[in-house]
């Protein structure tokens, strides 16, 4: 079996683990917002998604990412997205992420910091965290989420979401180089 086939086999074996972890993260944040009576800041139902296997393979082996261990180094095999109306709503979700006893987190992308560096550039704007559970989590008889399993969390406004959806395939994953014409 070659490296790509091993990668695919490992992901297929762990899909239910990642899916369960993403759903648990989504539900925890959503429930915490409801407890704080802040769930009205959500403008689109939070979604959990597994990264498409072809996107994973491309990211791992064909985008010059130079991963030492692609399977372990890729942290967005599962992701959860929260869409709010205003940038002022983003810190509410950030606070929940940063104060959860369930995980440790890393702040992987903060567009607010990027905006301070390049104030005149309107580009992809989302806050990205990667959370990793601190303890194993038994979900069912067949599914146990190992400690340290990563889940990416994106937080963005409705306007940022619209821009990201329109530009994602044409800019982020563009295979052809833009023409000057």
User: What is the count of distinct domains?
Assistant: 1
- Which series of helices and strands comes N to C? HEHHEHEHEEEEH
Count the strands? 7
Corresponding CATH superfamily: Beta Polymerase, domain 2
What profile does the largest beta sheet have?
5 strands, mixed
CATH 2nd-level architecture = 2-Layer Sandwich
SSE-based structural type: alpha+beta
Shape: globular
Number of helices: 6
Kindly provide the radius of gyration, computed on alpha-carbon positions and rounded to a whole number of angstroms.
17 Å
What's the CATH topology label? Beta Polymerase, domain 2
Query: Can you give the mean pLDDT?
Result: 86
Pfam families: RelA_SpoT
Domain RelA/SpoT: 48-178
InterPro entries: NT_sf (IPR043519), RelA_SpoT (IPR007685)
Protein name: (P)ppGpp synthetase
Structural summary, described in words:
The structure is a single chain. With 181 residues, the chain is an alpha+beta fold. It has a single domain (3-172), classed as Beta Polymerase, domain 2. Helices cover 43% and strands 24% of the residues. It has 6 helices and 7 strands, in the order H-E-H-H-E-H-E-H-E-E-E-E-H. The chain has helices spanning 3-35, 53-61, 70-73, 90-98, 111-117, 158-172, and strands at residues 42-50, 78-84, 103-110, 127-133, 137-138, 144-145, 150-157. Strands 1-2-7-4-3 form a 5-stranded mixed β-sheet. Strands 5-6 form a two-stranded antiparallel sheet. Strand 5 and strand 6 (144-145) form a beta hairpin. Residues 176-181 have low confidence and may be disordered.
């Amino acid at each position: 079996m070659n490296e790509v086939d091993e990668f695919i086999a490992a992901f297929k074996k762990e899909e239910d683990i990642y899916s369960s972890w993403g759903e648990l993260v989504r539900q925890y944040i959503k429930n915490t917002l409801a407890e704080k009576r802040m769930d009205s800041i959500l403008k689109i139902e939070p979604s959990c998604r597994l990264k498409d296997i072809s996107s994973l393979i491309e990211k791992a082996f064909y985008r010059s990412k130079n991963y030492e261990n692609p399977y372990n180094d890729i942290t967005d095999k599962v992701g959860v997205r929260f869409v709010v109306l205003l940038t002022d709503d983003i810190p509410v979700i950030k606070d929940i992420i940063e104060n959860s006893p369930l995980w440790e987190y890393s702040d992987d992308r903060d567009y607010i910091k990027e905006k301070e560096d390049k104030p005149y550039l309107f580009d992809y704007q989302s806050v990205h965290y990667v959370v990793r559970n601190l303890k194993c989590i038994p979900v069912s008889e067949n599914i146990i989420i190992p400690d340290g399993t990563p889940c990416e969390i994106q937080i963005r406004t409705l306007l940022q979401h619209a821009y990201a959806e329109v530009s994602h395939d044409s800019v982020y994953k563009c295979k052809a180089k833009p023409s000057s014409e």
